[in-house]
Structures are given as C-alpha cells and as structure tokens.
Design a protein that fits this description.
Two copies of one chain form a homodimer.
Chain A (H helix, E strand, L loop, with lengths): L4 E8 L2 E8 L2 E5 L1 E3 L12 H6 L5 E4 H6 L3 H6 L3 H5 L5 E4 L2 H6 L2 E5 L4 E4 L6 E4 L1 H11 L3 E3 L11 H21 L6 E6 L5 H13 L5 E3 L8 H12 L8 E3 L5 H9 L4 E3 L2 H7 L2 E4 L2 E4 L19 H5 L2 H9 L3 H27 L3 H12 L2
Parallel strand pairs in A: 4-14, 5-6, 6-10, 10-11, 11-12, 12-13, 13-14
Antiparallel strand pairs in A: 1-2, 2-3, 7-8, 8-9, 15-16
Chain lengths: ~375, ~375
C-alpha cells in the first residue's frame, strides 16, 4: 500500500480540489503548509497552528540534521511525536537550504559538501544521506535532494542542475527505506522551458507519488515565475499531488492554484507576523504604526482567529512597541489564519466554479 | 455596595481559605497572581494564563502610565477589555517600580519626581495621580502609592516611609473616584517591628477594603522576611484580604500562607521560565541542560499543563538551544501551572487541616 493516497474531487478549469491521505491524517487540497524550520512553527504552539486551519506542516531536514540531529529525533519517536504536531508533516531535503544558507557549499555529482551555519563544522550530504535523515525524522512526505540554482543562471548550469537532480531522484528512490513515507521528486530547469520539460518528463517517468516545482521565487519576478510555474504544472500527472515550493504571497498562491498546484509552503505569513505586518483582504498593514494606537477594531474585521476575536489593534500595537512576545504570537497566528482562510476560500471557489472571480478579489488587495 | 467582597471559608491554625468576589469574577484564596507588567503576562496569551489555574492577574500602573498611557487604555474600554484578560485584575500603584526602576527618583511628601526608564522624560507622580491613573486603567483592586525603602535602611528613613505611606493612603482614598475598584493600603516599616506595627495600625484605622505587606523581599533574607511577614500579617484584620507583595519562591509563599496571607504576586515563575528554569516538586531544573537531549519525559511527571501533556524535555531543550520562542512559552506556562497547582494544593491542605505537612513537602524541594 502506498504511503499516501491522493484523489482529485472537483475541478475548475485547471484548478482542482482534492484530498491527500497520509499515515498521520487527511488534508484537503489546495493546502498551505506553515513552515516549522526547526521543528516548530515560529512563535506558535501546535494547538495554535491547528486553530488556523493548517492541515500539514513543513520542517527542514537540513536544520534538524544539524540540530538536534536526526538520531535524537528518531529516538524520541520521530518528528510528529517529538514536535507535538500529531498531524501530517513534510520534510524538505535541504537542497534549498544548502543553496541559500550553508557556507562554502560545493556541489558535485556525489552530493553537497558544506559548513554548518551553526558551528562551521564540515559536513557532506549525498542524496542517500538526505533520505536516510528523512527516514529517521519520519515525516509523511519527504523530498528528494535537488541541485538548486539561483536566478539568473547560465544555461549550462541549469542543464547540469536538471541532470543531477534527475540522477539524485533515482538515488533517493533507491535509498528510501520506509514505505510509510512518500518520496516526492523536484522539477528544476530555472526559466528554460525546454529544461523544465526535460526535468518534469524524466521525473514523471520514475512514477514517484508526487512532484514539486522547485527553483522558483529566487529573484525571477512574478511574471516570469508565473509563466514557469504554469508551464511546469502542465507537465505533471493529474492524479498526483503537485507542490509549489517556497511560494508565496497570496496572489502568487492563487495564480498557482489556478494553474493546478495543490500544496504550498512559505515563511511569508510567519516572518511578516514577527515583523508586525498583518495580512488582510485590504492588503498588508503594519500593526505597530501609530494610527492604530487607540484603534479598538481587530487586526482584520470579520476574521475568526484568536487574535481578532480577543484583541484590538491598539493592544497589539502596544505589544510590539513594548517588545512583548505575545505581539509576535498574535500577528503570526492571524497571518496563518489569513492563509488558512485564503485556501478555504480557494477550495470553495473551485467547487463553485468561480475561482477567477476569487483570484481577482484577492489580487486587488496584493497588486497581483 | 463595596467593590469587592471577601469571606474566609476555612482555617488551619492561622492559614485560611477564602473567596474574593470582584466586579470581574470570583477568585479562591490563597491565590497567586501572575505578573503582567506591561498588560501581558510575558510570552503567554490570556487563554494560556487561564489554563494554569490563575484567577487574577497583576499589571503595573507605572509601566502602563508611561506606555501606552492610561488615557489610551481607558479609551479602549479599560485594562480588562484592552488586554483580553476578562477576569479580575489588580494594578500596582508604581511605588515599587519608582523605587527600583526609575532613574533619579526624588521622593518628597508631594510625591515622586522621576525620569521615565523608556525615554528619559521628566515625570511626577503624586498619590492623587497614582489613583487617577489606576481609575483610568480600571482594575478591580488598586494599590495606594507607597514610599518604598530598601534593605538595610536607617531607622529615620523607615520612619519617614511609614508616616509618608500613611499620609499618602489618606490622599489616595480621598482621590479615589470609582466605587467599582477596591483601594488597598500598604504596610511599610522595613524590619523594625514597632514601625510595622505603627504602619499597620494606622492603615487599619482607615478601614480600607484590603491590606498589603510591602517592602519585603528586598534583600533582607528568608529568615528575616518570614519574621516580618508573620508579625505584620497578625496585625491585619481577619475579615479582609491580605496581600504579600512581590513574594516569591514556593517555600516563601507557603510560609506566608501559613501566617495568614491570601494573595501573592511574583515574576519568579515567568522570569525563570524565559531563562529555561522549570519548577518541579523535585526542585528547579534547567531544561536546556544536555542530560535532557533525548529525555522523552515531560518537564514534570504528573503535571497536567499543556507543556507537560504534549512535549518532552528533549523537544523543549531543543527549542531553547535553537532560540525558538515556543520554548519560552512552554516553560513559562508550566511554571505558572506549577504555581497554580501549588496554590490548589495549599487550599486543599488548609481545608483538610494538614497545611504543615504540605509545607514540609514543598519546602524540602526548595530548601525552605
């Protein structure tokens, strides 16, 4: 029996709603995954994350491998048991973190040699090692190690990334030792349409249980990203989940939902929350701005989150001015609930065949 | 009708259980009040504070007067409405903060001239002003402005403090404009038994709705503190709540409960929590110590708090090592629940006439 089951429920043009069954529970798609880089969604308890409507949480194998170590987590019963998030989880293999965080990373066909961003230790991650780590962590969905490139990138390097990522997908598959975890492949190819095609077709041929679009939102801009995402999603099988990695702003998410993506992750709601920026259907507002000092309204009128039900803009502004942690908590919570509502709205709009109108409404607030 | 009603339910030697009715709800005594200095119990939501069994929360008029200002809070419906803690609250007048925090404070019979610890502004607080601020904030129990002294202090200064605190109590009473707030007097007198007596008898003569023991836990040590607290509590009326300010460690709290105190506040549980020190019936443990790296047990076996029900020492240690805010939240929450259980245990022990045995058990863990 496969680790996950995915079924499409309804469609609206290329968009679809679906259901993803995992060993730790079911998730309705399209879904937005809060990012719990170090095994915790920053500032929030699992109970608070759950209250935002999130169904599946992401954690970064790269960070957890370095601290506290995958063996430690395995000995504590695996990621779900250890982190207190008892629902579905996905771990990122670390390809993107190696590309963006590690010092002096050197990529070869063997894998990636790098220095820990925590203590400078020399480390090496091969595709096999990335899977071994994720097998120890025990998330429901695990990601292949991929060879990430930035933007712009020369064609020869994008070609290398596509071929290496394909070879690594095979090695990850061969090294994968647990049948209760689904291994997803990652399409690379930068902004070269033919390379994206080559990458997608190669991976699809491996018949993996799901596919991700990687290497986007790395500086190429909204228009080009949208083009690449649309073209890539079209190449991926209908019957399997499609995960757009690291995206993004509400309008970018809905663009990709319209193009048929099912899963998303991004630090945008939580990072903005910690900086005092709140998402609303009127756009982003900076809660610590002085116009709000005596504002008795909630962050966002009509929002049903704990922050909006119990606290005013005046109070939350005070928390930020006074350096109180509850401020970070409340705006992070609200922002994740905003994304939760965004996805609930998207699923409802798809079911009702009116996703275009919904996109237009959200896009207006975020200039999308 | 008085703002509060207090009744003693059961007694065990000089200890007693009671019930305190306030406009925002009832509290069982003895009770420990979590400290919400800036209108928030650090790191925790009101919902989380409530879950620890806390019935009444303290906020500091001094801090709130400076930021965001009492008018702002009044315009937002008062402290309870504004802070989201919809239960009973008490505000400290600021006497102790002026003594400990403000730069260049100058005390005279008129009041206290000082510079804001936030922006250096020159400010002046008289007894009338301290009450005006607290009338605007709207807590159920408010405190007179008192003239705090440290330890050791020369007799002439302690005498001055007692006489000034008495004069200020009268001025606070005369300035007090709301009958839905109970104004408590504060006994001073340092460690001089006759001055404590003079202070207590003077205030009792004013027939205030409750009395606090101030000016303890300022460096005089446990033995001397206990002596002063016992002697002072004995002078206070049976039928009114007795509040021991700024105390303390579990064994100090139980000593004072045995001597007849009903209310307590202290930053110890939350400040220790943020530093990774957890209270348990085995004593304080430092959760980020390495022996706990693979410890699958909760912070404290048998504790029913959210942190202990859902998370291991291994995970909480990781949160501290990784600098994640959830670590501060979980240990703060546990520590307040520890104090919540401590007080529940004390009330039960008083009802069963076995407070001495209970004190001995807790004292053993904390060297009391």
């Amino acid at each position: 029996m496969p680790a996950i089951e995915f079924s499409v429920a309804t469609t609206d043009a290329r968009a679809r709603t679906g259901r993803l069954k995992t060993p730790h529970g079911e998730v309705e798609t399209p879904t937005f995954m809060p990012v719990g880089t170090q095994g915790t969604v920053k500032c929030l308890s699992p109970e608070q994350v759950r209250s935002t409507g999130a169904g599946i949480v992401l954690a970064n194998a790269y960070h957890l491998m370095i601290r506290p170590g995958a063996q430690t987590i395995a000995q504590c019963g695996g990621l779900q048991e250890w982190s207190g998030w008892r629902g579905p989880m996905l771990t990122d293999s670390g390809g993107y973190q190696l590309f963006s965080l590690a010092e002096l990373a050197e990529v070869s066909d063997e894998g990636v040699r790098f220095r820990s961003h925590v203590d400078g230790t020399n480390l090496f991650v091969s595709p096999e090692e990335a899977i071994k780590v994720q097998n120890l962590l025990g998330a429901d969905i695990i990601m292949q190690l991929d060879d990430c490139v930035g933007f712009p990138v020369e064609r020869y390097r994008a070609e290398e990334s596509v071929r290496r990522t394909y070879a690594w997908a095979r090695r990850c598959r061969d090294g994968h030792a647990r049948d209760d975890q689904a291994l997803f492949g990652i399409v690379q190819g930068s902004t070269y349409a033919d390379l994206r095609r080559e990458s997608a077709l190669g991976l699809v041929d491996l018949d993996m249980p799901g596919y991700a679009v990687g290497g986007v939102s790395v500086g190429e801009g909204t228009a080009l990203m949208r083009e690449v995402v649309e073209a890539t999603l079209e190449l991926l099988p209908e019957g399997k989940p499609r995960y757009l990695m690291g995206v993004g702003l509400p309008s970018d998410v809905l663009d990709a939902v319209a193009a048929g993506a099912d899963m998303f992750d991004c630090v945008v709601p939580t990072r903005n929350g910690r900086n005092g920026w709140a998402f609303t259907l009127e756009g982003l507002i900076k809660v610590k701005n002085s116009p709000y000092s005596r504002d008795r309204g909630p962050i966002e009128e009509g929002c049903d989150c704990y922050a909006c039900r119990g606290f005013t803009r005046s109070y939350i502004r005070h928390l930020f001015k006074a350096g109180e942690i509850l401020g970070l908590v409340l705006v992070s919570l609200h922002n994740l609930r905003f994304y939760g509502r965004l996805m609930e709205g998207a699923r409802e709009a798809i079911r009702d065949g009116r996703l275009e109108a919904y996109r237009a409404r959200v896009g207006a607030a975020f200039g999308g």
